[in-house]
């Protein structure tokens, strides 16, 4: 293993998850990194990240995905959280309009802390809850278009598009390198 590491280039991309409390950030990460879902919304303790290895163009890319420790409830995500990020998933809950209305504030905060070149994906999560949808696909799309973000709807519960959401961002970061 050591030999292989010496031969290949190393890519490490820091990606942050942002968005209102309870939109499903932690579950998106656990679904992506461990294929797990947790119904109990237990508060994460301490800043956490998980590293996931993805192969792009035959190269090994390490995606280091950061999850908040629940401090978004107090609007107090620290600059350390954003430092060095090259990608961001801005998450809202399609059943909760207020979380969609907060997206602009999260984007503003991101732009204060990160370079404009950061790859950004707008994520409408909980798309399994179609019967209680409160934000249309069109609303999501047009907000993303205005801000120049990618857009996707996901379900951490039934796994819809979770892999794609992360992989599109990782691919975009990779493309931005060259
Ligand atoms: P966070 O505060 O943004 O990290 O949100 P969590 O990941 O803790 O999720 C908040 C709540 O929403 C929990 O009760 C989860 O079980 C639930 N949840 C998260 N993702 C989904 C989803 O895709 N569909 C549904 N139905 N519930 C979800
Ligand atoms: Mg969380």
TrEMBL record:
Highest taxon listed in the record's lineage: Eukaryota
Family to which this protein belongs: Belongs to the small GTPase superfamily. Rab family.
Protein name: Uncharacterized protein
Full-protein interval shown: 53 to 230 of 269
């Amino acid at each position: 293993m050591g030999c292989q590491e010496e031969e290949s280039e190393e890519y490490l991309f820091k990606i942050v998850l942002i968005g209102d409390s309870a939109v499903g950030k932690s579950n998106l990460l656990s679904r992506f990194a461990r294929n797990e879902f947790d119904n109990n919304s237990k508060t994460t303790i301490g800043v956490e990240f998980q590293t996931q290895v993805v192969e792009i163009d035959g190269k090994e890319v390490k995606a280091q995905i950061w999850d908040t420790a629940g401090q978004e409830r107090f609007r107090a995500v620290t600059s350390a959280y954003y430092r060095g990020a090259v990608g961001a998933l801005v998450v809202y809950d399609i059943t909760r309009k207020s979380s969609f209305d907060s997206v602009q504030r999260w984007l503003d905060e991101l732009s204060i802390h990160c370079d404009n070149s950061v790859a950004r994906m707008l994520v409408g999560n909980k798309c399994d809850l179609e019967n209680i949808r409160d934000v249309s696909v069109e609303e999501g799309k047009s907000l993303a278009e205005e801000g120049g973000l990618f857009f996707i709807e996901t379900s951490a519960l039934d796994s819809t598009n979770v892999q794609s959401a992360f992989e599109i961002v990782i691919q975009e970061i990779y493309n931005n390198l060259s």
